[in-house]
Predict the 3D structure of the following.
Amino acid sequence: MTAQFGAQSTTDEVLKGVDLSGKRILVTGASAGLGVETARALAAHGAQVTGAARDLAKAERATQEVRAQAANGGGLELVELDLANLASVRARSDALVADGRPFDVIIANAGVMACPKGVTADGFETQFGTNHLGHFTFVNRIASLLKDGGRLVNLSSSGHRFSDVDLNDPNFEHTPYDEFGAYGRSKTANVLFAVEFDRRHRGRGVRAAAVHPGGIQTELGRHMTPGVMQRMIDNINAARPGGVEAFQWKTIPQGAATSVWAACVAPAEDVGGRFCEDCHVAEVVDADNLLMGGVRTYALDPEHAKALWAKSEEMVGERF
């Protein structure tokens, strides 16, 4: 690679000099935060972006600057998609396949975090159902639209280190519910999905990666009270070794940088089947320190990824 980027790099720095004219990129969660910034940066560099969002009116308001900054043939179209409702997922995927226009990249960005216990329209635990099963079904149903040589980028999190997936009790029917434990399961699933998708599609040059954007203050944290947020930060800082600087929030452009780096800048062979953070491929770290960086072994285990794929197919009632 000709340039090195890190935790403080922004989307515009990562994409400097990159011409995405003629590229077609799908971004889920294009109504707030990282999704809007990702769409803005891509359209500003010439990409035709399809932004998927549950609330189209909200997305229209939130993406005015995306349209304003689109350049070099770039642009934005918005489509409705509710990842917590498989009827919506199937309707949108069917419409995209019928439309037939291929994508160079899919960025599975949308998600929920640390919400109270609940279920999706299909009865799945909210975080696993939305963050993983919704994307699993949607991406697989439109996988034929990914061009040979294309990429899938799944937004995961360092929060995958809170917990591994539980294939015996994915909906917390027999396990006491914990907001962050459930979030961790869903974020581990995002990584494992990328691992198995990469294995299945690399033969035609399609590669998949999972990314951790970093700690960013967006709508994702709307279920966390200020007290809970502060306790989490205090715990992170308390666990840091001596001499390591205290936790700092990233800006939204810094948070979205790893997504666009993995999607459009990093060599495909470097990121395929891997977990990325701060615009680099993360090291495997199995230490107890949750948020010091790195990826847990269980999130990259290929057999674990195959088992999750099979369980996910069983849960949504489709085979891919």
Notes: The CA atoms of residues 173 and 282 lie 33 Å apart.
